[in-house]
Design a protein that fits this description.
This protein has about 90 residues and is an alpha/beta fold. The chain has one domain (about 5-80). The protein has helices at about 5-15, 30-35, 45-50, 65-70, and strands at about 25, 55-60, 75-80. The protein has a 3-stranded parallel beta sheet, with no helix packed on it. It is globular and about 45 Å long.
Amino acid sequence: MRTVSQFGVDRRRSRIEGRDGRTLLLAIDHGLPAGPIPGIERPAELLLRMRSVPFSGLVANAGLVPSVSKDIPPDWGLVVHLSAGT
């Protein structure tokens, strides 16, 4: 029997899974631990360039999400990377 908690996990997961059950995520959560990385130092521009790629969603640090939220395509899911530093 599924618990209420499992129902929530399944619901959130369905937001990033494709119809075929596969997922392709664009990860731009590297900057905080690794410092600026060539190609992702301007995340809003990167998101605009990546719109044509069939990503299921985006992985980003919590601090980055407010500055790029308007640039995330509406059909993409969002995975917020939380750590002890955020």
